[in-house]
Design a protein that fits this description.
The protein contains 10 helices and 8 strands. The chain is an alpha/beta fold.
């Protein structure tokens, strides 16, 4: 666990384990139960699964979660039909494909996946590796995972707008392999989107630089430790790095004490998860809940405890940051 120099170091060392409750291995069975916001609707395309089966017979590319789907969409523009496999309302960490999905993938032109995010993605990539007609694109190729305060080999790289630029370039290279005639357009689109990501990073940095606090408390699963490495923020959660992890009473009590010690005024929560723990923490500590998005869930409407937040199911990466993450971080860190 990273600790601050100075007065806060003793408090942080006492609570070292809280910054990183060990995550569980990602399996095929989810434990969150039925999501009332889940639908059969998917973002992108016309629902067709065949090779060249997108609108106007464009190549079809499947992506394995909302953030990566948006990378494909931004780079592809109108040249490729990008389809997010995760239905609207489902959490990307907890969603698993139905039998036959790999067969659908074999009929597509491309498959963009996240290494070590969920076992079904790695298994699908392995099965498709020998398929000469489906290009397998590892979005995280060349990105080194690190041992974060939350887990060893933390795979949530897309929470870092700088690392995302490598992911976008990987997508552009893969799309160029699928559709060489438009390779130049993919390179140009990737460069343009990466500039948006760079501006997002700079705005994030500016918030941290003027902040009064350096600590964030998250009352749902902890997808945000790449902000610890990039922006030197201390992020605490009584939950691990998977939505399936559970918080112990002792961990919850430690977090409540930490909130009081640091004078933290807000508890953040993943918009794609039930927010009961975050609400309970806020009630016990007389703080306020604020939303965060790990860009693993698309929601059409208001999240479970979203307050005035109204999301749109086709929001992209930048939308999630500018509409949810940056405003909440600015408020929570007292950088307004």
């Amino acid at each position: 666990m990273k600790t601050n120099d100075g007065a806060g170091s003793d408090v942080l060392s006492r609570r070292a384990a809280l910054a990183g409750t060990a995550g569980v291995a990602f399996g095929l069975a989810g434990c969150l139960g039925e999501d009332p916001q889940a639908t059969d609707e998917r973002n992108g395309g016309d629902g067709g699964n065949g090779r060249g089966g997108g609108e106007d017979d464009r190549p079809t590319v499947f992506a394995t979660m909302p953030a990566v789907w948006d990378f494909v969409r931004q780079v592809a523009d109108d040249h490729i039909d990008a389809i997010d496999l995760v239905p609207v309302g489902e959490h990307g960490h907890d969603w698993n494909p139905e039998p036959g999905t790999v067969g659908d993938l074999e009929s597509a032109d491309g498959f963009v996946y996240l290494r070590d995010f969920s076992s079904w993605q790695d298994n699908a990539a392995d099965q498709l590796a020998d398929d000469d007609d489906t290009v397998v694109i590892e979005a995280s190729a060349g990105i080194d995972f690190f041992d974060s305060p939350a887990e060893d080999n933390d795979e949530h790289w897309w929470m870092d707008p700088i690392e995302c630029q490598t992911g976008v370039d990987n997508v552009a290279d893969g799309l160029a392999e699928i559709d060489p005639d438009n390779a130049e357009a993919y390179t140009e689109n990737a460069a343009e989107f990466n500039q948006e990501l760079q501006e997002l990073h700079e705005d994030f940095e500016a918030i941290v630089e003027r902040a009064e606090l350096n600590e964030l408390v998250v009352g749902t699963h902890d997808s945000f430790q790449w902000w610890n490495r990039r922006y030197d923020l201390d992020i605490y959660s009584p939950v691990g790095t998977s939505p399936d992890d559970a918080a112990s009473p002792g961990d919850v009590q430690e977090i409540e004490e930490l909130i009081q010690d640091f004078g933290i005024g807000h508890v953040l929560y993943d918009v794609g998860e039930p927010g009961q723990l975050a609400e309970s923490l806020a009630d016990e500590t007389e703080t306020t809940v604020l939303p965060l998005s790990p860009i693993e869930t698309q929601i059409d409407g208001t999240p479970p405890i979203g307050g005035d937040l109204v999301m749109e199911s086709d929001w992209g990466y930048v939308d999630h940051f500018r509409e949810i993450n940056l405003p909440s971080i600015e408020t929570a860190l007292r950088a307004e």
